Amino acid sequence: MKRAWYDAAITRFLETEPDTIIGRLTRSSDFPVEPAQRDAWLTQIALLRNGLRGLEGSIYFEFDIPRMGRRVDVVLLVGPLLFVLEFKVGERRFEREAMDQVWDYALDLKNFHEGSHAARLVPILIATEAETSPRLDLHTDHDGVSRPIRLNPRSAADDH
Question: Domain containing 113: what range?
């Protein structure tokens, strides 16, 4: 059973046309895809294509969390790290509810997805219109799940 609506090696993702990725996401969707959802996926794809260059690993869009009935926007497996990405397209602020959401996704993966039990998980909240990213303070708890990172894609691009 496929857990993700789209999955690929990062190198293949970077070589694939966005329309092809959207097609796979749309075909896998459990619901009618509205223009707002399509546009959100296009934004995510564009941001990730810019941010993942030079990395090796795997990418999973719309990853189902077993037994929880929840779906993570994007999961990235890079080396020993599993990044759990929640995008808030068009948001200017890092809302507490969204922070809790991405942290809950990481905890659910840690506890309910066998392949993630031993992994180190890093939840990341991406507010696409936020002015800045708060100072990065990576703190990992004893269970191997980091506290959520808040990221503005523009400031992350400036760091490259």
Answer: 4-159
Rounded CA gap, 112 and 107, in Å? 8
Residue 42 belongs to domain with CATH number: 3.40.1350
CA-CA distance, 124 to 112, in Å (whole number)? 19
The helix/strand count (H/E) of the chain reads as: 5, 6
Distances (CA, A) of 138 to 65, 88, 128: 24, 21, 20
C-beta of residue 88 within 8 angstroms of C-beta of residue 98 = yes
3-state percent breakdown (helix, strand, coil) of the chain, nearest 5:
40, 30, 35
Helix (H) or strand (E) run with residue 58 in it:
strand 58-65
Predicted local distance difference test score (pLDDT) of residue 157: 47
pLDDT tens, residue by residue, 125-141: 999 998 877 666 766 65
Rounded Cα–Cα distance for residues 83 and 106 (Å) = 8
| Alpha carbon distance 44, 54 (integer Å) | 18
Model pTM score: 0.88
Domain count, the chain: 1
What's the distance, CA 128 to chain centroid?
A: 13
